[in-house]
């Protein structure tokens, strides 16, 4: 599969602190790439660089084969949307207005609100099930409701490429699967998705391309069936487990060993 | 082309002209703006008619329409007319500067008063007026001082303007240095000059001329549209730099341009009225609550600022004090209370 988004030999740093060095990755066009890895290994940092909100200290990101900075910023925003891990809700903004802000890259000085904008906002709120909250202030929502509103904001952007940093945090288990099913639908409709997830079983069930990161490096990538092994989980997370087959989806599924973190766990 | 229509009952109201033009607006915002304008007009009428020297109400309209002589000509053309014109435009200017700063710092404390811009402009004005009189004009000195203060803040934070909380803390330090420099200039200069300057440095609108009015209205005419052009990108900055950048809002550049516009606005205000305290801090917050909307609310902040300063100046003109109190002292007294409230609130929220 051709790559819609590529990173070549990235070095990513905050001030002088290098978090990622010499990392390359190809995001397959039309795929659902899921990135997993322990806390602080650099997943969000990588996602920011792919979304050009963090400028690489070295290396480059290519969108459809061309350096991403060579495009106008609004042009990129019509191709690629990004949900940050902890977005900031402006004071007193309503759900409808927040979702509407996702339309900015489609607007111009004179055409600040077209009928297509109304339709996109309504569609995005419907897809995430937040229509009933439309006139509520975002600040007065529960964490999970707010998360869905932010996903709606990103969907309203109507891009072919979606980067989602932990879209399921704060959600109860049913809403987690709602969001994942929504992602799967978007993927089936032909969009390219990249998401960071913490739940390995969810990742294995939904990804077409699973990327495991550790300490700023990509340790393994490919179809979940090839990537998700007991050795990998132990190497990356320091967790000993067994890999079974998910009886529903047929994807690999991990079950931690009893007392898995103890090194004498062998004497079960 | 079709006539402008407001459409979208269930959606947000939008002014549309065919397909080419579509601008959303807030109904409440329009009403609040209209009310503010009416109240400003009322304050203006009272300012011109009140007191011993006031023009009698029935004579006001004829006096405004013709070119009156005598007492009316003096009050309208010299005593209160230009002062009122300066008050309205300076208030609006400060309101816009305040909303720009508060939006780019995402903090109600991030106003020109708090972060050293007013103090820098005052120090520049003091230097231009007393230290090197005649070398540079006072407005240019104010602009220079404001720019130096902002440069100091930019350097002091260690990462430019991208960290709002550092921006505010460093700004408070720069502000203190600005005041110290001003005091130094006053201490060095002769007594008489210093008295004049001291009143200027509180922020005063006494004996303003039509020349001052022209300066501030011209600045507003250029800088308000500039602020409005940045308005939509400022809305994105409210959602964090990362989201703004992801949406194509280019937060770094927006912030830099907004600060440049706000520095010019503040310098213009300081050069005609001195550093009138706390209008820039309070006007945007009042406007936001009146308009009950998220966002930069640039036009409402301008109207609120104009109303605040015109009202404050009316009060100092008509209040039965023995001395002519500079309007800045009144705004400082009222605004200081509000600043204290804000500090406590932000401290409780843990943002400072
Ligand atoms: N804005 C920042 N400034 C400085 N350092 C940062 C910043 N953001 C992240 N870091 C550091 O970079 C490293 C990687 O962080 P990153 O957010 O990419 O981790 P992550 O893999 O997304 O972790 P998590 O699963 O906890 O979200 C961490 O050590 C973190 O402390
Ligand atoms: Mg993260």
Sum up the structure in keywords:
heterodimer, A: 268 residues, alpha/beta, four-stranded antiparallel beta sheet, 12 strands, globular, B: 352 residues, three-stranded antiparallel beta sheet, disordered N terminus, binds adenosine-5'-triphosphate, binds magnesium ion
Can you put this structure into words, describing what you see?
Chain A has helices spanning 43-50, 73-79, 95-101, 115-127, 143-156, 173-188, 200-206, 224-227, 230-237, and strands at residues 3-14, 17-28, 32-36, 58-63, 66-67, 80-83, 161-165, 192-196, 209-214, 217-222, 241-245, 252-256. In chain A, helix 3 packs parallel to helix 5 (143-156). The longest helix of chain A has 16 residues, at 173-188. Chain A has nine helices and twelve strands. Chain B has one domain (2-349): Orthogonal Bundle (ABC transporter involved in vitamin B12 uptake, BtuC). Chain B has 14 helices and three strands. Mean pLDDT of chain B is 85; it is low at 1-9. The interface between A and B is large, with 42 and 33 residues. The structure holds adenosine-5'-triphosphate (ATP) and magnesium ion. Adenosine-5'-triphosphate is lined by residues 14, 17, 19, 37, 39-45, 85 of chain A.
């Amino acid at each position: 599969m051709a790559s819609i988004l590529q990173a070549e030999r990235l070095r990513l740093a905050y001030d002088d602190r290098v978090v990622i060095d010499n990392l390359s990755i190809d995001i397959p066009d039309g795929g659902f790439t899921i990135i997993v890895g322990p806390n602080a290994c650099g997943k969000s940092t990588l996602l920011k660089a792919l979304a050009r909100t963090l400028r690489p200290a070295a290396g480059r990101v290519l969108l459809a084969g061309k350096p991403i900075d060579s495009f106008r910023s609004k042009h990129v925003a019509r191709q690629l949307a990004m949900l940050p891990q902890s977005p900031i809700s402006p004071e007193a903004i309503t759900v409808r207005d927040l979702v509407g802000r996702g339309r900015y890259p489609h607007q111009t000085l004179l055409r600040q609100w077209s009928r297509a904008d109304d339709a996109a906002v309504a569609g995005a709120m419907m897809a995430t099930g937040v229509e009933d909250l439309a006139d509520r202030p975002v600040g007065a929502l529960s964490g999970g409701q707010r998360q869905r509103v932010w996903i709606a904001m990103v969907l309203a952007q109507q891009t072919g490429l979606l980067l989602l940093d932990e879209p399921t945090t704060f959600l109860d288990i049913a809403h987690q699967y709602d969001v994942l099913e929504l992602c799967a639908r978007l993927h089936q409709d032909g969009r390219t998705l990249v998401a960071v997830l913490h739940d390995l079983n969810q990742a294995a069930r939904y990804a077409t391309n699973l990327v495991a990161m550790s300490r700023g490096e990509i340790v393994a990538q490919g179809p979940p069936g090839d990537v998700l092994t007991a050795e990998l989980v132990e190497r990356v997370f320091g967790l000993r487990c067994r890999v079974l087959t998910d009886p529903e989806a047929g994807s690999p599924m991990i079950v931690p060993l009893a007392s898995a973190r103890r090194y004498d766990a062998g004497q079960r | 082309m079709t006539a402008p229509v407001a459409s979208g009952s269930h959606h947000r109201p939008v002014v549309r002209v065919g397909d080419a033009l579509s601008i959303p607006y807030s109904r409440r915002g329009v009403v609040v703006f209209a009310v503010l304008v009416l109240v400003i007009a009322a304050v203006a009428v009272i300012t011109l008619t009140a007191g011993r020297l006031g023009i009698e109400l029935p004579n006001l309209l004829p006096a405004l329409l013709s070119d009156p002589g005598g007492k009316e000509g003096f009050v309208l053309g010299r005593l209160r007319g230009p002062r009122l014109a300066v008050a309205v435009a300076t208030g609006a200017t400060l309101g816009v500067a305040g909303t720009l700063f508060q939006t780019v710092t995402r903090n109600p404390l991030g106003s020109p008063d708090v972060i050293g811009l007013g103090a820098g402009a005052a120090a520049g004005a003091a230097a231009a007026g007393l230290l090197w009189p005649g070398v540079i004009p006072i407005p240019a000195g104010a602009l220079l001082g404001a720019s130096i203060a902002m440069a100091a803040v930019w350097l002091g934070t260690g990462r430019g303007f991208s960290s709002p909380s550092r921006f505010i803390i460093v700004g408070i330090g720069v502000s203190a240095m600005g005041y110290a420099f001003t005091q130094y200039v006053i201490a060095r200069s002769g007594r008489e000059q210093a008295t004049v300057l001291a009143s200027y440095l509180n922020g005063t609108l006494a004996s303003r001329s039509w020349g001052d009015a022209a300066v501030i209205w011209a600045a507003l005419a250029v800088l308000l549209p500039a602020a409005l052009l940045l308005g939509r990108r400022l809305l994105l900055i409210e959602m964090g730099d990362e989201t703004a950048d992801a949406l194509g809002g280019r937060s770094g550049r927006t912030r830099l341009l907004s600060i440049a516009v706000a520095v010019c606005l503040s310098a213009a205000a300081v050069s005609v009225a001195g550093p009138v305290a706390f209008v820039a801090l309070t006007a945007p917050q009042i406007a936001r609550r009146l308009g009950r909307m998220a966002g930069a609310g640039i036009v409402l902040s301008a109207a609120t600022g104009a109303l605040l300063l015109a009202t404050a100046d009316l009060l100092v003109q008509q209040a039965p004090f023995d001395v002519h109190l500079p309007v800045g002292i009144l705004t400082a007294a009222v605004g200081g209370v509000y600043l204290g409230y804000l500090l406590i609130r932000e401290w409780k929220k843990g943002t400072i």
